[in-house]
Each structure stands twice: as structure tokens, then as C-alpha cells.
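Subject: Sanity check before I submit

Could someone independently write out the C-alpha cells for this chain? I want to compare against mine line by line before I put it in a report. The sequence has 114 residues.
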Amino acid sequence: MEKDQKENLENQIREQIEVLKKDILSYKELTKPVSPDSSIGRLTRMEAINSKSINEAALRKAKDTLSNLEHALEMIDDPDFGLCRNCEEPIPIARLIILPETQLCVECAEKLSK
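---
Independent answer below. Compare away.
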């Protein structure tokens, strides 16, 4: 990976981390418990509980992605960064731009998902 590509990727990762941190704060607000003594109707309460569950799943996913991005940022200067952990071939820069936290090339990721 060329120096300017690495710098661009690092900046992109930092931007994504900042966005995720803000999203996580929002999800935390949206996942607060639904009080049973709230004066909302039965259907509205069920909708609120369902919405809370969806937001909890989104919160978990955002936290996982944040952790993976922070790890990628720590490893970006490692000589093995950008190499597939399975086949050890370089991961195309286009894939790293889309998924900077990825550790697998497309071919190995497809094999593992089957």
C-alpha cells in the first residue's frame, strides 16, 4: 500500500470512528428502559419495546464496528496490515476503503461465509 493511500485510509478510519461514537451515544439514549408507568397506550408501549430491541442490536453492532476500526487504526503501520489473514495476499485498497476493519480478502471471506 502506498503512503498516500495509507494516509487517506487512516483519515477515513478516524472519521468513521468519530461518527460511530456519536451514533453510539444516540443509541444509548434510544435504548433506555421503557417505563411501565408511562402514560402511553398498549400498542405504543409494544412499539417502543420493539424499537428499543432494534436500537439495542444497532448499538451492539456499532460498538463491535468501533472496536474493529480502533484495532485497524492501531495496526495500520504494521507491515502485515492490508494482508489477508487467511491467504496472506494483499487485500485490494478498494475493499479496505469500504471495510477498513476487514482482515480477509473477498475470496477468503466468501469461503468462510459458506
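---
OP: Matches mine. For the report I'm noting this point. The mean pLDDT is 89.
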